[in-house]
Design brief:
Elements (H helix, E strand, L loop, with lengths): L11 E2 L10 E2 L1 H21 L9 E6 L2 E5 L7 H10 L4 E8 L5 H16 L3 E5 L3 H9 L7 E3 L2 H13 L1
Parallel strand pairs: 4-5, 5-6, 6-7
Antiparallel strand pairs: 1-2, 3-4
């Protein structure tokens, strides 16, 4: 029997793990194994409990200053957007020092909030961004459109001095 690069005619090496070992199988057998594996994985996924999501807590520190605690994820986008929409100050500061991470939904809601405020002639600044969240901003190039400060006091001082200058 001739083989080409380890493959023999009529047989194929399957990467499916069925019965604990890789096997040389005929193509129709491979389909059967794939269906069995799919049934096993589906039934085991259904038995897994849902991963609990951490809540996002919003605290209004002052007019225009919102502090967030918890991840900004798909499950928490609604409280984030509601808090941002309720705030009517011309300058809004979002303190992210309590936000450990965010997902694409959270990132999208943040960009949406910034865009809405910019269209309305308002400003948003973000403070206290950790390295993990900052990396997401850098990868997606969002840090170029966000006004960021290291700390909440730096942002407050910058806007206070801007108003008097």
């Amino acid at each position: 029997m001739t083989t080409v690069d380890g493959w023999s005619p009529g047989y194929c090496r399957t990467s499916l793990r069925f019965g604990g070992a890789d096997e040389w199988v005929r193509p129709y057998t491979r389909r059967f194994l794939a269906l069995q594996l799919e049934r096993q994985s589906t039934s085991s996924l259904e038995s897994l409990p849902a991963m609990p999501s951490e809540p996002l807590e919003v605290e209004v520190l002052d007019r225009g200053v919102l502090s967030f605690r918890g991840p900004l994820t798909m499950e928490n986008v609604t409280p984030f957007m509601n808090a941002v929409r309720r705030e009517t100050a011309p300058t809004m500061i979002l303190d992210f020092s309590g936000v450990p991470y965010l997902d694409s939904s959270g990132l999208g809601s943040l960009v949406s909030a910034c865009t809405s405020c910019a269209k309305a002639g308002r400003r948003i600044a973000i403070t206290g961004v950790n390295k993990r969240v900052l990396k997401v901003f850098e990868i997606t190039k969002v840090e170029q459109i966000l006004l960021m400060f290291p700390t909440l006091s730096d942002a407050i001082e910058a806007f206070t001095n801007a108003g008097t200058a």
